[in-house]
Amino acid sequence: MPMWSFQTDPEFQAKLDWMAEFVRTKVEPLDYRFPGHGAVYDVANAESRAAIRPLQDEVRAQGLWACHLGPHLGGPGYGQVKLGLMNEILGRSYWAPTVFGTAAPDTGNAEILAMFGTDQQKARFLQPLMDGDIVSCFSMTEPQAGADPKEFVCKATRDGDEWVIEGEKWFSSNARFAAFLIVMAVTDPDAAPHERMSMFIVPTDTPGIEFVRHVKVMGDDHAGDGGIHAYLRYNRVRVPLDAMLGGSGEGFKVAQARLGGGRVHHAMRTVGKCQRALDMMLERAVSRRTQGKLLADHQFVQGMIADSAIELAQFRLLVLHTAWTIDEIEAGRLPHGASRTGIAMCKVQMAKVYHDIVQRAIQLHGSLGVTLELPLAEWWGGVMSLALADGPTEVHNVQVAKALLRNAVPAKGLFPSEHIPTRMEHAA
Ligand SMILES: Cc1cc2nc3c(=O)[nH]c(=O)nc-3n(C[C@H](O)[C@H](O)[C@H](O)COP(=O)(O)OP(=O)(O)OC[C@H]3O[C@@H](n4cnc5c(N)ncnc54)[C@H](O)[C@@H]3O)c2cc1C
């Protein structure tokens, strides 16, 4: 058996083939029937829900529902490499993750409910989430602080047999559609920085939750209040003691458990989105003529296509290798934390590769590329979000560098260990 294998077993390849055809013919049309960033999360929209239910049943019948969760967490558990291959297909369509029960942030929220939830919490919140009946929100970032949770001030104080949550949260995506929010709040301000906070499950209809406004991002419609990223104020919101998810002071630990997986899943879907942009470039190159020949016959265009394909191939290998390390950790063959650097690399690279490929795809489509008649302009609007959501690029870059520097050894002498005269001296 070769040490490195890039083959997919035929049985799973058949599932991937089924998925690719199903997403292309039955799911992608939903992107045009029910457009808009919020549409996939709007469980109150009877028409879109009626349209997706039979599709979700087909996915379940194929054993492909909620594949992000392993068997010990209640899912079929194909592992991260196979999930990576699946997410490449799902990343091509806005609706596909919802149809397959793997839409963020519900995936990460389901993971932490499965990992840290009590039986009661699982029955009340995880089960309907897994069934696709509700959606959820992860409410962590604050208006004055995002990248550094140590700056958070939203607090929860104990009052008899209740916790009282007070403070503001920023960019709580999908809160307007969510049945519950998972809120990170300071419970012990005097504790060590990573033990100051705890996580709470807060039903969205709890008195005191105020939507200051629904924030929009690039690409959202300017009219109406259609933004899906909530600016929330928690006005002495009271929850029972058993609303805490995980132990007191374990907020960081719970957040970390969801963020790593979430980042790599985004990267997997981004591979699919980039592939779709590359497919568009290829079609355009062999369809459009200028200066008496096809775009495909111009070297600049060939360069854009080659650069895109090479960057995508490199990124895809990084993502799949990182997925493999996560599977190896699960199997006990690699130590806990062995995937951390890979995940940070994926996070950095996904924003860059997506930026470069979508930019070239727009350029090759000329004026049509910047119109709203192609999906490219909307994808371009999402480029910067990829470099910010789940932590800005810089933070992950620093993490990669620090991991490498931790094992770096200073030169023994005055000159670097690769100093040629010194090496010649020793070689003599
Ligand atoms: C589309 C989208 C969806 C989101 N959804 C959610 C959600 O559902 N729930 C939630 O809680 N949050 C969500 N967020 C918020 C996201 O997690 C934060 O935007 C992110 O953590 C960065 O925080 P910030 O925006 O406050 O930026 P800041 O912390 O203000 O950072 C601003 C900039 O400062 C620089 N910087 C910051 N830290 C460092 C550092 N250590 N070293 C060097 N430079 C640094 C970087 O250039 C960074 O971009 C979402 C964001 C986006 C864009």
UniProtKB/TrEMBL annotation:
Required co-factors: FAD
Domain Acyl-CoA oxidase/dehydrogenase middle: 137-223
Superkingdom to which the source organism belongs: Bacteria
Keyword Flavoprotein included in the entry's annotation: yes
Sorted UniProt keywords: FAD, Flavoprotein, Oxidoreductase
SUPFAM superfamilies xref list: Acyl-CoA dehydrogenase C-terminal domain-like, Acyl-CoA dehydrogenase NM domain-like
Keyword check for Flavoprotein: yes
The Acyl-CoA dehydrogenase/oxidase N-terminal domain, residue ranges: 51-133
Coiled-coil portions: none
Pfam family of the protein (one): Acyl-CoA_dh_1
Every Acyl-CoA dehydrogenase/oxidase C-terminal domain range: 249-405
Family of this protein: Belongs to the acyl-CoA dehydrogenase family.
Subunit relationships: Homodimer.
UniProt name for this protein: Acyl-CoA dehydrogenase family protein
Protein species of origin: Novosphingobium tardum
